[in-house]
Design brief:
homodimer, alpha/beta, Rossmann fold, 7-stranded parallel beta sheet, 9 helices, about 15% strand
Amino acid sequence: MHQTFDAALEINLLHANQQGADHNRAHFDEWGITCLNLMSSPGAGKTVLLERTLATLNQELKMAVIEGDMTTELDAERLRQYDVPVIAINTGRSCHLDSKMVSGGIHRLAHEYNPTEFDLVLVENVGNLVCPAEFEVGEHAKVALLSVTEGEDKPLKYPVMFQEADCLLITKMDLAPHLDIDLEKLEFNVRQINPHVTIIPVAAKTGEGLETWFAWLRNQVQKSPTKQLATA
Amino acid sequence: MHQTFDAALEINLLHANQQGADHNRAHFDEWGITCLNLMSSPGAGKTVLLERTLATLNQELKMAVIEGDMTTELDAERLRQYDVPVIAINTGRSCHLDSKMVSGGIHRLAHEYNPTEFDLVLVENVGNLVCPAEFEVGEHAKVALLSVTEGEDKPLKYPVMFQEADCLLITKMDLAPHLDIDLEKLEFNVRQINPHVTIIPVAAKTGEGLETWFAWLRNQVQKSPTKQLATA
């Protein structure tokens, strides 16, 4: 994150954000919604992954997307074609979503729909491998994406994101044959930072790994305690 | 950048950074050094571009590198093989270099070497397409890199970086045939944000465009007013 002149102020900033995140999560729990926070560098493939996910799981799960971008609604417009609510948040000059911005999105969702009907809210964060990892937004799990084009050293160089992730998607696997990337080294580096993260190699273009991703997603929704309570 | 609770504090933060940047630039000017700030998403190819640059121009220009990374000296170690001074700065949790960090690097350079012997200092920033664009470090020009794998919409979605850039390298051109990227659309989008930026498509792997990049670099060094003064 940005350094300020005042360590206490940084702590306050993160503390206030955490309180907001807990408040958002309480809403999700109350409504029986599982919320996931998708984070990566720009262009690692968050939006195309969401496109594939919405297209495939639309009949099975009631989903909504909270779409964070600094400017433009380009990604939100792509996702609206899949006939799910997409709430666009422009962060302006801010390099990540924070819990207050997502709170605004949640309240719009609750105002325009019956929130208890939803199973899954997918938050697409601003493309940034650094800052979003430090600002929880109320999610139940964090999903990081790393494209094979980014190189096998990235988990070591940007450790916070990889420490925080519950699931790591290695994206654009179809490009791996055209690169010098050492996939075993990449996985080794990830495990050094986070031994227990679920790693799923995927290629949205060929469909490789998507069934594994969908199974992970279903499992996240099913293990939601409030959902189990609601359907008991 | 991160939002704080206090707009005045943000202005102070950027103002203090700007003062530090001006101070750094005054040192560079005094020593006849041209300083460039290289910025991009993680894995767009900043380090490999520096490797090619150091290998090719080492006999012609006296260069040094200030290498910013959150953690590790992996990139610094790669560059030290080229027999130029590489000053590594670990930013910790900070998502960008700021002028104070670079000031520390400059003072180390001046302490360990005769700074007036250098022509060019290349600053490699933390991999982040958002935050580094807002924090000048004392550079004479900003160089942004965007990989063809990141997609043609990025200039619109991350406008600050593209507004600020004096030179934009479109990297990994060798991968373009394997992607759906529309290169004309990419250039159109860049020009919408910054009509006058110099755009150079490159591929470090094949050497495509590197001569154009070296020519741009030489021109930056030659147009330095203090260098012209020093050699008059």
